[in-house]
Amino acid sequence: MTDQDLLRAYAESSDMDSLGTFFGRYEESLLRFSGKLLGDSDRAQDVVQETFIQVARQPRKLLGIESCHNWLLRVARNIGITQLRQDARARRHAERVAERVAERVAGRVAGEAAKAEAALSTKAERDETKHRVREVIAKLHPRHRELLMLKIEESKSYKEIAEITGLTATNVGYLLHMAMKDLERRLKPLREDLE
Q: What is the 8-class DSSP label of residue 106?
């Protein structure tokens, strides 16, 4: 059966076997292409799944297309590029937020150091401290980093963080407590250096 026959059978009578056969013809090629585009085989599977969902929703759209394979590759490419752009925006945002969090934490560390009569005296020392704090924050578990940013940078309540992340407020509180303990443990050598 041709691609058009399979798509027509699915479009007209919801024949899932025909749709499965159609998907089977292109899955490996799309996975390989998406994997190379994204550099991540797990995310490539998500792209291929989203591509096939588009076919399943509108199978008639492909009936007049000369090359289904080319159309599928174009859709997978568009989805993949959208993901890469979202990743880049998320990375830039995370870097900006991490910078602001690092500045706040560095300020707190510097405040503690001042109390211990070991205040930072030069801009270079403050910059070095910020850099070291950013490195510490970057090493935190991604979930802890996310929750700390929402709490400290975005000033969100436990309830709001729960809504954003899909966790319970109790779980948010526990994870934030663990994140702060981890951050405190990791910052201890830095505080000792400043004293």
A: H
CA quadruple 168, 169, 175, 179: dihedral sign: positive
Separation of first and last alpha carbons in the chain? 76
* Total-model pTM: 0.52
Q: Where does CATH 1.10.10.10 sit in the chain?
A: 92-194
pLDDT digit string (tens) for 119-140?
A: 445 676 777 777 887 788 888 8
CA 34/CA 73 separation, integer angstroms = 9
Distances (CA, A) of 40 to 37, 51, 86, 90, 130: 8, 16, 15, 17, 32
CATH 3.40.50.2000 holds for 92-194? no
Tell me if 75 sits within 8 A of 54, measured CB to CB: yes
Q: Is 11 exposed, middle or buried (0-12, 13-18, 19+ CB in 10 A)?
A: middle
